[in-house]
Write the structure tokens for this entry.
Amino acid sequence: MSNQKEITAKPIGKKVTVSSPATVANMVCGFDILGFAVNAPSDVLSVSQTNEPGIHIFNEDEYDLPTDPEKNVSGAALLALLDKAPDVKGLILTSKKQIKPGSGIGSSAASAAGAVVAANELLGKRFSNEDLVQFAMFGEKVASGVKHADNIAPAIYGGVTLIRSIFPLDIVPIKPPELFVTIVHPQIEVRTSDARQILKHTVLLKDAIKQWGNIAGLVAGLLKHDYDLIGRSLEDVIIEPVRSILIPGFNDVKRLCKEAGALGGGISGSGPSIFMLSKTQQDAEAVEEVMKDIYNKIGLDYHTYLTTINNEGVKVIDNG
């Protein structure tokens, strides 16, 4: 039964429409601190003002997401923005999602980031990108119970972002070299909140040291455009060994994709999607064939994306 209610609020003035990208969080070793945006898939969101107080949500997709703004990731983000814009009575949000919720490629972040970027454009760009990340993190809290920014920041800034700190928020944008991204989304759902609950609460010092080295190496490799260093650093000894048990075929995907030419990769966000980075499109295409072959043999439905890193982030596609 649909929870979509009829929107009675009337729009005033112009409507801003944006394309909001999928994102890959963690980048293997950078749990909650690294992420990047991709050029496909993406959501489409529109925002307009209304004289009716509050946030009014209309969904134009099949996912039957809540229209109560406090229970909707876009709505929660817009409520936070509205709190800092007392001259604005209300906003109407229309959302058409093409990033499946629970896919592990930043569906909730695309909704929250796209909504606040569209609203900010509508209101004359009165807020900074950092402000927008702060607002959108309220949406991530609705989705997972945690205000993390590793999907939100790259969705808004584009490219790769390093979250040096959440409190206070400190975002470091990183312009990566050209990289091709291959993603496979096995058609199962892994809830972010569930994937967090299975994580260990303590870490061995030797594992922490290895992880720190990989994070530093990955950031250095991205900044230096050193593909070999990027590949050597795409290793996770803390999170991935635990979460990978939730994803059928994961170990085969990782091993065989690297043999096919990928630099490396791993779980996208909390899964179930798996991403691989490649230096060339030819390698990325070979990786995609490996992914397809593995899931065809398993007999599990899947979807693949062959794309590149999105250096722009949320993009305004109609400002009328």
In short: DSSP finds ten helices and eleven strands in the chain. The two ends are 34 Å apart (CA to CA). The first helix runs from residue 73 to 83. The mean pLDDT is 94.
